[in-house]
Amino acid sequence: MTEQKKIYQTRQPGLLIILLTVAEVGFCLTMGFLTRAFVPFAAMGALFSLVGLLFYQLTVRVDAEAVTCIFGVGVITKRLRIRDIMRVKEVKNPWYYGFGIRKVPGGWMYNISGKGAVEFTLKEGGIFRAGTPDPQGLVSQIEARLKERAP
Predict the structure, then answer these.
(1) Taking the CB of residue 23, how many other CB atoms lie within 10 A of it?
(2) Structurally, how many domains does the chain consist of?
(3) How far apart are CA 68 and CA 100, in angstroms?
(4) Residues 132 and 91 placed together within one structural domain of the fold
(5) Are residues 71 and 24 in the same domain?
(6) What is the pTM of this model?
(7) Closest CA to 10 of 146, 147, 108, 140
(8) What are the pLDDT digits (tens) for 118-146?
């Protein structure tokens, strides 16, 4: 198997975000028709749709060179080069860390749903947390990449 084909990927769906987006857009369209103020409600519906597209899922992809976290359709991404990662471990995010893109003690977090996450300790200092439904699988994939790069 070539390096190009060794890709691990996991997706964390944002079911709550999807449901809220559908409800908000439906509400905006309904109110637009009922009040005959279609343009402002259509604009609000479009804004809610945009937020839904940006945050409906979090994809974490691991290849030979990097770990890439991709929100929604891919406009918002974070790329960590394997060589910049010192350590990786499975963690549980406390409820008060919330969801989305968050500043957390020592670094940043990307999360859509659930508590399961992987914490990366970076060589330059600081941490980065990525939410995932498969923290053990993600940790093992990254540890394998770190071992491949070890001198």
Answers:
(1) 11
(2) 2
(3) 16
(4) yes
(5) no
(6) 0.87
(7) 140
(8) 999 999 999 999 999 999 999 999 999 99
What's the confidence (pLDDT) of residue 2?
Answer: 45
C-beta atoms surrounding 10 within 10 Å: 19
Q: At residue 7, what is the residue type?
A: I
Q: How far is CA 128 from CA 71, 103, 113, 151, in A?
A: 15, 9, 16, 24
Indicate whether 89 and 41 sit together in one domain. no
Domain that holds residue 32: 12-54
Tokens of 74: 């891919």
> 24 and 43: one domain?
yes
- Tracing tokens 């300790």 back to the chain, one arrives at 121
* Dihedral angle computed from the Cα positions of residues 108, 80, 111 and 139, in that order, rounded to the nearest 10 degrees: -110
Q: Radius of gyration of the chain from Cα atoms?
A: 19
- Check if the beta carbon of residue 10 is closer than 8 Å to that of residue 135: no
Each residue's pLDDT tens digit, 32-84: 999 999 999 999 999 999 999 999 999 999 999 999 999 999 999 999 999 99
Pair (50, 70) in one structural domain: no
